[in-house]
Amino acid sequence: MTFHLLLVLAAGLFSTGLFGALSQQSVVMIMMGIELMIGGVVAAADFWHFLSPAAGGGQVVIVGAVVAMAVEMAMGFAVTTALYRARRIDMTDLAGDLKG
Q1: What pTM was computed for the model?
Q2: CA atoms of 69 and 74, how far apart (whole Å)
Q3: How far is CA 4 from the centre of its chain?
Q4: pLDDT tens digit string along 37-52?
Q5: What is the CA 45 to chain-centroid distance, rounded?
Q6: What mean pLDDT is reported for the chain?
Q7: CA-CA distance, 8 to 50, in Å (whole number)?
Q8: How many CB atoms lie within 10 A of CB 87?
Q9: I need a surface site. Which of 2, 13, 55, 60 has the fewest CB within 10 A?
Q10: DSSP states of the chain as a string?
Q11: pLDDT band at 4 (very low <50, low <70, confident <90, very high)
């Protein structure tokens, strides 16, 4: 029973994050959706560790996901801050006009 609850939690987090990342125009909201997706991966890795606690694969995936979360947030907020300071742009459709 607990196995299924962890998988439903992981799938729910990932699907909510995917919907949020694909449906929003604000850069900050897209990054929040990506964070939820990575949280779903962490929950799935938790399920993996729950099934086989002696194997270290689940822990490696969790550490990798947490590092990806930190890098994504640092780079995302740096780019968003630079775009906003340079052109006062905070929406993705407005950032597409920066080609020239």
Answers
A1: 0.74
A2: 9
A3: 22
A4: 988 888 887 777 777 7
A5: 14
A6: 81
A7: 14
A8: 12
A9: 2
A10: -HHHHHHHHHHHHHHHHHHHHHH--BHHHHHHHHHHHHHHHHHHHHHHHHH-TT-SHHHHHHHHHHHHHHHHHHHHHHHHHHHHHHH---BHHHHGGGG-
A11: confident
